[in-house]
Amino acid sequence: MGYYCELMMGDYPISSDRNEVNPYIAALFDVDDLYIYRRKKGDRNKIVWGDIEDKEENEMCAVFRASADIIKDRLIVLGFSYQRGEDDFYSSIADRISMLKQVFSGENNKRARSEISFLKKASYHTFFEALIYIFENKIQKKDLDNYKKNKNYKTLLYLFRNTNPFEDFPNSDARNVIRGLVEISPKNMLLEYDITEHLYSQLYDDKFPKTKEIYRDLILEDELPFEDRINEKIIILTEGSSDANILKRSLRLLYPHLSKYYSFMDFDNAAVQGGSGSLANNTKSFIGAGINNRIISLFDNDTAGYAATKQLSKLTIPENFRILHLPDIELASNYLTLGPTGLTHADINKCACSIELYFGKDVLMNNNDFYPIQWTGFEKGVGKYQGEIIEKAAVQQRFNKKLGKCESDKKLILSHDWEDMKKILQMIFSAFNE
Length: 434
Known about the structure:
Number of helices: 18
Structural class: alpha/beta
Radius of gyration: 26 Å
Low-confidence stretches: none
């Protein structure tokens, strides 16, 4: 007879897996997202199950549950961007047209010719607009006649040519469709992956294993292509131990649901030297060693950092590597500097932005002005001076104090400036979206 595992978003079914748990879908959830509890059979999703006999009968159930914003963040970490979804759509359309031409070649098949004609005019925007309309109105196939006046009625019909419009949406990976949905959904909307039937099929009856045991059995990472293993840590290499510690703590504080997907080099235990030159050498070593993990080498947004990455520009960088600099920020576009002519303001992006410049205005402000940048040596390789913030240790101490307060009381996060630190982290999250 078989069973089904259902993925639902806001109580509307968007994907169904017969006789299996989809490892790609399950991997979007964490062990803490798996809930095992008792419910009445009548509480099952009405669109999926309809009217159920024995509605009042209790059953054990197992459901993965997470909000749209958390799933969106995890998909971004995996590399799923809006552009990737659009590219996948047009590629799938082309494959469908090619298949129809091959299968019905030489035959007078009116239905196939009609579909080809329709698909040649198809646009991602129109299809996704229709999909959103289905989702927001919870449309079912039996109700389609009520929507004949809708401007995208032909697209609605096409999406319902089988049963589930989300599965009939042209794509090669359902996660591209989910990525588009969570982009436009309220942040707190829930995605639920109901695996109850799967567990009953394993003869667990009413004695389901503990959540960690179920999760371990379901998320078989070695069966997934490496790039799809969201639970494989992304390694971040930085210029020094203080950079790594600052980013690690900031990540845990600001994006706790993503912190477990990243690992930072342990400078102390590995006895690794700091600095942009050492980071460049470590990056070369990792490339030469053929490391499979996704790796981000994060250089400062300063002269020394760009001089170091210039060395790496001659190498062939593997697809699982990203060479990044701390991002340009508005604060640095007109920042207080100290040079031979005294104090002046200058654009220090790409010249003097170490991680301290991203600590927030509440940390960098000192006596009604910012801690200045002092110009030091001239780097011939890139033709620029290198700058460094004055009283660097004091600035770091102030930031660590800010971190400590917010770690002790998360409510204080909103009363501090995290704008530029978030820019670093968001850049890291989207590093593999290309």
